[in-house]
Amino acid sequence: xxxxxxxxxxxxxxxxxxxxxxxxxxxxxxxxxxxxxxxxxxxxxxxxxxxxxxxxxxxxxxxxxxxxxxxxxxxxxxxxxxxxxxxxxxxxxxxxxxxxxxxxxxxxxxxxxxxxxxxxxxxxxxxxxxxxxxxxxxxxxxxxxxxxxxxxxxxxxxxxxxxxxxxxxxxxxxxxxxxxx
Length: 181
Hints:
CATH class: Alpha Beta
Distance between the termini: 30 Å
CATH topology: Rossmann fold
Oligomer: single chain
Structural class: alpha/beta
CATH superfamily: Vaccinia Virus protein VP39
Order of helices and strands: HEHEHEHEHEEE
Radius of gyration: 15 Å
Number of strands: 7
C-alpha cells in the first residue's frame, strides 16, 4: 500500500497483516483521485472516511492537503494503525472507533466527500441503509458520497445515484444530494 500523490507521494505504508481489511488497490485509488482532482480544491475539502480500515483513503486525502479528515472504523487495531501513521506523517486525522451507524447517529458535521468501503459481504439493503441515512441527515455538502464495492453488485437503484466507475473487480458508485456537483 502506498500514497499515490501529494506531500508523501510514493510513501509505502505497511499495515499489520492481522488487520481484517481489504485495502483499496493503488490502481483503483489512482483512478478515483484522477476523477476527484478535477472537481475539488483540496484545501477547502472536508472528508469522512467510513469503514476506514488501514486508512489508505484517509492518508491519500491528507497527503493532498485536505482541510479536515474524519476516519471511522469499529476495529481498534485499524484505528490504532491510522493514529500511529497519522502521527508519523504529521497528518491531522480525527479518528473514531465506533460502529458506523452509532457514529452517524451522534454526528452533525457536514462533509464534502464521504467515502465508504464496507466489507464486500454487505448486501444491497445494507448499502442503501447507510447511503439513505447520509442523504436524509444531509451530511454531504457540495460534494459526493462515494461507495467502494464489488463489481459483482449494482448499486444504481439507490436514491441519489449519479454514476459508477468500474476498475477490475471493484467499483466506485457516486451519490449526491440536491446540492452535490
